[in-house]
# Entry
Amino acid sequence: MDDEEIEESDEGAGMRPVRYACEACGYAWRAEVEAAQQEQAEARARALANPGGPGALHPEYLMAVLSGVLGPNDVVVSDSGNAAVWLRAQYEAGLTSGFIDTTNFSAVGSGLPVAIGVRAGLSEDEARAAEAGAPAGFGAGRVVAVTGDGGFMLNVAELETSVRERLPVVAVIANDFGFGNVRSYQRTVYGDRRIASDLTNPDFAALARLFGADGYRVERPDELAPALQAALAGGRTAVVDVLVDPEVLCPPLHAAR
# Structure
C-alpha cells in the first residue's frame, strides 16, 4: 500500500497524525509499528490458547476475548489495578478516544464512574447529531468499564446512577477475590506474606440484578464470549462478573524495597 492509499483508507485516517509527524524520518516508524502489531497478534494468540480453567480463567484470556467482541466505535475505560495491565497488553482501540486509562493516576475504583460519565457525554453528542440530521446511530459506540473486583467494590453504588439514568454501560470485572496489585507486591517483595489483600465478594451478577441492571456470571471459558455479547447487545447497564485465577498476577511496576 503506497502513501496515497494509506491516506485514503480507514486505517490511514487514524494514522494521519502519525504520518504527518514522521514524514521527515522517511517512514522508518512503519517497520516498528508492523513489528509491534505482529508481537501483539502473537501475544493474543497465546492468550486465546491459554484460557485457564473453571472458576480460574486466565485474565489475559479475558482481555483477548473482550478485545475480539468489541467494535471499532466502542470505548473502553480502564480502572487501575492488576487487571489493567492485562487489558493494555491485549486491547486495540479503534478510535483515538477509544481507550481511557486511569492507571497512571492510581485511581482505583474510578472505572465505573468514569465510564458512566463517558456514556452520558456520548448520549448528548448523539442527541445533538440527530437534531442536526445525522443518520440514526451516528457516533454510537458502546462503553465498557474494565475493572478488578476490588476497584469495582469501591464505587459499586454508581450502578444505581447508571440504571436510573438508563445508560448502557457494561462493567466487566476480572474477579480474583482480592487486590491483585497488592498481592503482586506482597509476592514479589515480601515473600508472598499476604495481609489485607484477599476479599470475600458477593455474586456481582446477582447484585447487579438487585440494582435493576443485567448481570452475568462467568465461571468457564466457554461462557465468556456469550456473556460479553449478551451484555453488549442488551442496551442496558450490565455487569459481567468473570472469575479469574487469583494466582496469575502481573509483576509490580516497582519491586525494589
The chain has two domains: 1-40, 50-243. Residues 1-14, 134-139 have pLDDT under 50 and may be disordered. The beta strands are 52-53, 56-57, 75-78, 99-101, 143-148, 169-175, 214-218, 238-243. The domain at 50-243 is CATH 3.40.50.970 (Rossmann fold).
